[in-house]
Specification:
Largest sheet: none
Radius of gyration: 20 Å
Shape: globular
Number of strands: 0
Distance between the termini: 62 Å
Oligomer: single chain
Number of helices: 11
């Protein structure tokens, strides 16, 4: 069941699974519920259940299971990362920031966790914090393309080159391109001749 959940893991901001893939996860959910009942003190079964529920679009069930897993093992940054994803999906940005801060407190030099915190801060309109967080993440991992993209988006919002995103999906979209003026297009055409 765990392998199926990892295979069909849903990335934050992406749509829920449909049809055959969702059916495979439904069977895994059933198996994991049995395991969770048999081993109520294990954090792994609720983690996997939370991820599975998230993958099939059952956000409330996902959050409940991930919160349960975080209560059992509050130091597991994977659990916190997944819980933060669900909070972002629910547009509960204040909770997403708190969860991401907990994860960073556990692993303060993890550039992935710092990137997640910066995204949460951006969506919570904590732009100054987001800028500082992503700068530190890039100091730790300057070649990380995901964090480079996050930094670019934060800078674009700060300089008003793109609007403040209201959702993770909005943040992930390319900003609308400004149409060049007639004279700019004309000048470009003449230079290429």
């Amino acid at each position: 069941a765990f392998d199926v959940v990892w295979q069909y893991r849903r990335e934050p901001g992406r749509p829920a699974l449909e049809s055959d893939d969702a059916e495979k996860l439904t069977q895994a959910i059933s198996d994991l519920q049995s395991l969770s009942a048999k081993y109520p003190d294990s954090a792994k079964a609720p983690l996997a259940l939370g991820m599975a529920w998230f993958a099939v679009g059952k956000i409330d069930q996902a959050r409940n299971q991930l919160q349960r897993s975080a209560e059992i093992d509050p130091e597991d940054t994977i659990v916190l990362k997944e819980l933060g994803s669900v909070c972002l999906e629910q547009q509960d940005f204040a909770a997403a920031v708190k969860v991401a801060q907990r994860a960073v407190a556990i692993c303060p030099d993890d550039s992935d966790l710092l990137g997640n915190l910066a995204v949460s801060q951006l969506l919570a309109t904590q732009l100054s914090d987001a800028k500082g967080t992503i700068a530190y993440a890039l100091k730790l991992g300057p070649e990380d393309p995901v964090n480079q993209n996050i930094a670019r988006i934060i800078q674009q919002v700060l300089t008003e080159q793109r609007p403040q995103p209201a959702t993770l999906q909005e943040m992930m979209q390319r900003p609308p391109q400004k149409k060049q003026s007639f004279f700019a297009r004309l000048f470009k055409r003449r230079r290429s001749r």
